[in-house]
Amino acid sequence: MRQYFGRKLLIYALTFFVAVTVNWMIPRFMPGDPVASMVARARISDPEAVAAMQQYYSNLFGFDQPILAQYFNFWGALFAGNFGISIWAYPLPVADVIMDAVPYSLGLLIPSILLSWFVGNWAGALAARRKILDNTVLPVGYVLTAMPYMWIAILLCWGFGVVFQVLPVAGGYSFAMQPNLSWEFVGSLFQHWLLPFVSLFLVALGGWAIGMRNMIIYELEADYSNYLAALGAPHRLIRRYAFRNAVLPQITGLALQLGVLVAGALVTEIVFSYPGLGSLILKAIQNQDFFLLQGTFLFIVLGVLIANFVIDVVYVIVDPRTRAGMTGATT
Amino acid sequence: MTTTDPITAITAPDPGTPPVTVRREALYFAVRNGKLLLGAGIVAIFLLIGIIGPFLVDRPPMEYVGQPMMPPDGEYWLGTTTFGQDVLAQFVHGVRNAFVVGLLAGGLAALIGMVIGFVAGYRGGLVDEILNMLTNVVLVIPTLAVLLIINAYLGIRSVGMQALFIGLTSWPWVARAIRAQTFSLRSRDFVDLARLSGVRTGKIILREIAPNMSSYLFMTFILLFGSSILIASSLDFIGLGPTDGVSLGVMLNHANQWSALHLGMWWWFVPPGAAITAIVGALYVANVGLDEVFNPKLREL
Amino acid sequence: MTLSVQDLRVYYRTLRGDVKALDGVSFDVADGEILGLAGESGCGKTTLGKALIRMDGRMKLVGGQVELDGENLPIGDTVKMNPFRFTEVSIIPQYSMSAMNPTRKIGRMVRELLDSRGVTVDTDELHRRLDLVELSRDVLTKYPLELSGGMKQRMVMVISTLLNPSLLIADEITSALDVSTQKAVVTTLKGFRELGFVKSMIFITHDISLTNQLADTIMVMYAGKLAEKAPADTIVNRARHPYTQLLISSLPEVGVRYAEKKLTGIPGNPPSLLNPPVGCRFQDRCPLAFDKCREEPPAVEVEKDHFVACWKA
Description:
The structure holds 3 protein chains of 3 kinds.
Chain A: H1 2-29, H2 34-41, H3 47-61, H4 67-79, H5 94-127, H6 131-146, H7 149-163, H8 183-220, H9 223-230, H10 235-271, H11 277-286, H12 290-318, H13 320-323
Helix pairs in contact in A: 1-12, 5-6, 5-8, 5-10, 5-12, 6-8, 7-8, 7-10, 8-10, 10-11, 10-12, 11-12
Chain B: H1 6-10, H2 19-30, H3 34-56, H4 87-123, H5 125-140, H6 143-153, H7 159-169, H8 172-185, H9 189-196, H10 201-209, H11 214-240, H12 248-257, H13 266-294, H14 296-299
Helix pairs in contact in B: 2-13, 3-4, 3-13, 4-5, 4-7, 4-8, 4-11, 4-12, 4-13, 5-8, 6-7, 6-11, 9-10, 11-12, 11-13, 12-13
Chain C: E1 3-14, E2 17-29, E3 34-38, H1 45-53, E4 59-68, E5 71-72, H2 78-81, E6 89-92, H3 106-116, H4 123-132, H5 149-160, E7 167-171, H6 179-194, E8 200-204, H7 208-214, E9 217-222, E10 225-231, H8 232-238, H9 242-249, E11 300-303, E12 306-308
Parallel strand pairs in C: 3-8, 3-9, 6-7, 7-8
Antiparallel strand pairs in C: 1-2, 1-4, 4-5, 9-10, 10-12, 11-12
């Protein structure tokens, strides 16, 4: 088990290292003078801000220094929690801007990922049981997984927000309110949260349902299922075993899908102008705010790595084989 | 196996069914598989739209050609945008670009995944260890986030460039799956025979191992094709689409940006999303059908 | 008479039509008898084994009767068959290595299996049988993954015979084992019979030499039909069916230098069972074939307990 976690952590450390390096390299490898073009592209009219920007970029990139020193400085700044100054939200530091947005993104992602995983697996297991259900779950599942996240968000937004006008279509809470701890505000938060949540939930649901259905059918054909059936064990027992064995790869699948789910959340937030990381990215791109963009990138990578590790821990708890001292999972 | 096996000793060993028969057999089941026919049919329709559509609708997709905000009518079948662009013209060009992205990105990812998977699985040892580590790292990094950074710094973005980067980031699961399969194939007799007779590694992979996995490789490509279209559309929607053309994702981006939802201009945002869903969904369904065709165990149930 | 099979016909449904995997097979297995079932892959021996306990979704019963201990076995009805499984008919599958649920400790799996059949576990008896096959009692607290191949094989043998079935089907259980382990398995199976864990047994294998060590009677099948059935040494020394003769003569013999005696195979392949030829199914490969072989040869008892389906026998 120690080896299992050791290997995982090595991969995550390496991944983080690669991500930071990519982040550092890209501005340097793109043609042209990054500082000039960044400041020029940044749509800031305040001359004081422009000067500060120029100064800041030059210092941070440190082009007068040898390339290796630039690289180490970059890491140093990173560990000091310094992601730079946001242009879009000048003069706020990028880290602060991101920290304001993170709770909204997590509030969307965690419930929709977990709920879609549970409901999807349940629906898939049910589909594997009855032909009639199979004939509905399967096509619906395929349509849902094939839908671009932003399109289902747009349809929901249009249907519930514009045509029926039952739910708000933009923001994290009512524009007329200031964040505070009242029922009214929480209610507003919930109303604004509902549609983006549902749209993320729906798309993810299809994939889990199809995955579970296929896995469980595979498990029901497995040797141990056949052996139990030959010894006259009731379907109930066989299905219980099959379900348990089919859930394990679905947990690994959750880790593999994280990137896609996060990407889905980003575009969904954009549709609903939900104040999470997705909207930040849009703002960053529209305002050529590269520090904000790069900071968000690192945060997303870090978040995905942490989530991966959590899933690894869960897997060890759920799969008895890894606990018994063997490497059951081969990720 | 250490057993003496008189049965295999007495029946003149059959050197495998000749490939022609296998192919004919696959075709036999292919034309009888509803899922495959449905999926392939839908993909074919959109492919046709993408190929000949731009010639039939000769209005330039980005020009302001008509009255703004016109709902669909006889002249503009899918209406016009807030600026009076022809939605149908954008749509047919967008469908074409979806196929271009899918083909290039899916093809590239399949190619990289195959090469890495084959080499890692066949060579084993340290080479495998390093390639496996690389695969795992790329697998864990959120693809879209990387693409965001890269594309944001690219001043001019083309469909080909987008496909290139999508291809470069979406190969890991393919490499992993192919590595596992190669691993099991490399100890088979016919591979041993080739190795003992001094055939070079590259040739063994190309001649002995790859053909045995050809159906699997093809299905992998189809899945990559679909997922590439989805990734590209997300990038486009965030505003990092091609700067030199239109795509289905760019249409959604514009519709969202210029308040098509609030203005109720459904003809602007429904068709592009529906097209992506239909193409990708049809690819997935066709893939399930193909699986049943190539996998005898599935088709007889 | 433990088992009596009359004119059993089991077909496989495929998109191209029915594959006649078992096409009219009749035989008996007596109390305490071990029947070795031999033949090439695809001759129907595994189909026969499966048909007697649990048919898979593609198999269908077309005709025939099976009686066990004087009682009719409803093999075509998977629900009605269920009470007989495990208690009356049991199987040691050819996939012993993967027959146990990988995510359950073995002891718990056995308990849940027995509970589901309404039987309580007799722990002492279970331990006694583990001792018998030289398995430590710890295996019950382990996952299948923690056992070696041979241990898994023995564990499955214990599980399958736990309820003392009348008939045990052992389906190709030795084909993945090395020679010494094969011997051990054969000895264990014999011991199971001596101790009364099983009344009679059908031992399916493609390895005639191994069958000979265990079986009282050997039945050779070809292309879905019985070719020859006789006491073991009759089959080995005085086979009458040309197919059996070729099968025996192709066996490697101890002490023979193969440089001097070439190992000969039987040329050709078994016929397609989608549209089997009329008459004897071995006629195309048979060195003795003559006109009469276009008619189907019945299985005739040429001497006591020696059945042959051949016009030349």
